[in-house]
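Re: export button greyed out
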Amino acid sequence: MNALRRWAGTTGFRVTLLHLALTLLGTALLAGIGYWATSRFAVRQIAAEIERDVGVLLNAARIGGVPSLALSIEARIAADRSGTQFFLLAGADGGRIAGNLASAPHQAGWASIEVDTAREDSVMLAFGTALPANHFLLVGRDLAPVRALEAQLLGAAGWVGGAAILLALGGGLLVGRGVARRAASMERALALVEEGRMETRLTARPGGDEFDRLARRVNATLDRLQLTMAALRQVSDDIAHDLRTPLTRLRRRLESMEGAEEAVAECDRILDIFAALLRIAEVESGARRAAFAPVALDEVCATVAELYAPAAMERGQILVAQIDHGQTIQGDRELLTQMLANLVENAIRHGRADGTVRLALEDRAITVADDGPGIPAEARDLVFRRFHRLDASRTTPGTGLGLALVAAVAALHGLRITLEDAGPGLRVRLAW
Amino acid sequence: MRILLVEDDAATAADIARALGGAGHLVSHVADGRQGLMEAIGGGFEVLVVDRMLPGLDGLGLIRALRAAGIATPALMLTARGSLNDRVEGLDAGADDYLPKPFALPELLARVHALGRRPAVMAPEATVLRVAELEMDLLRRTVTRAGQRIELQPREWRLLEYLMRHAGRVVTRSMLLEGVWDIHFDPRTSVVETHVSRLRAKLGEPDLIQTLRGAGYTIRPPDA
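Workaround output, generated via the alternate export path:
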């Protein structure tokens, strides 16, 4: 059912539908015109035969009078094996003199008249002529052969139409499936790229159709993107190597000097910021997706809770962990652990001394709550920015990058992050 | 111990060589990957300290080639890139430990010591670990001090086991985080300190776990 619904949403399906509609329209037009022309031609043929009969009979009347005419009519009726010819010669009193019709309206000119034969709803085409001395001649031909022809035409049109529908459907499916298959293979390849497998390329046959040309364009774009990412990586490496190495040496020098503890601490802070920035950049690049594996969140939560419980206790706080078991997501265990550790660290740092820090793993959500001053609603969007620190926490240690990393890791895993009022305090909710 | 140091940055190499030499080790230093590989194959070293980014042959290639040649000398890989993939790549290539730069020299010393040959009693297959009158039975999962049973939480057990397996040597904060909690980042809160002090309190007096300022912890008999 789902596959059907997906199929209904594809270009292939729409192309098939359009193809089908156009084919049907074409077949109907062709059949209609053919029907109309053939049927008209057949009626005209019959009319011509009637005119010829009338001519011959009038000639007989002119030469031999009414008796000769009656004789001619009887002879014609006798010769008509198919029983499709009708005649009536009526006298001045309206009574039948000759013919095989009981009666007919005395109307000159062309008329369609119902015939009272064994066949139902048979109609004949008739031509009436007034004769001298109030006599009346009617010559008619049954239209049944024309109706039969029409029925045959309709039947043929039905067969042709049916075949056209099948052909259109088959062709559409074939074309659609080809298109769908190409699109699906492109989609699969790009999904791999999205997961961080940057070396993935679309298949493009040399020469090829518009899909191959599109694939080549996408591949060229990916090449460029990969180059850019490599360049970015190179810059990061350069920063890492060319700035951190001398900083490390500086730190080592300072370490060996008396009374330089503050300078060493400042060096450590700079090194920490570098490390955090590089880590955030790495997370945001999405390269870690390639290493995603199922992560048991209860284990991650339990580890973090267990790790931080004594630290919370040092501040007189209680760390309460409420963990539902059996929840697993695709992800990077190390990053998820670090994300959660950052949140718990924040909660311990900003929570009320002697208060409670709550870590909960519920159905499709992790929450970390403290009972400290919280964050005003209008400032909540800002805290995930790099280096953003609320005025109140400027005096406490920290790089201002902890929540930026949390946001980056959450985004990498497709977790929605919201800040809520825990009344009092702040509750961070990560949902998926 | 005889230690081979393969590091291209002269100043860093000098610092490391000085620190290792100061701890009583014999250090050979080369600055090039290919040369490092030759030296390492030449043998006689108990620990290798290899930088990841090297001219000639990079650290990963060096260790891979070494392992392919069947040489199992413990190797510590250094790297200036703190990236998450790097550690996995380093360990996959056959390195035994991994240390991102910048690192404190005591951290390097502690990790080099941990990689060095273990005393026979501390072999991984030992079933009872002992420090002074503290005894840890790995099979019966009991800890006693002078015959007195001490009850430990699972994590406290792992913490004590890690310390006792490295008895007499320095273990750093990050070694404990990695070895006990499998955590590879540096928490800003002093979590390890609080765990160690709780364990200390359970083990009682006199204190067997010593804190070495700026370096880490070591468990050893109080008189040693």
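Residues 11 and 45 of chain B are 23 Å apart (CA to CA). The button fix ships in the next patch.
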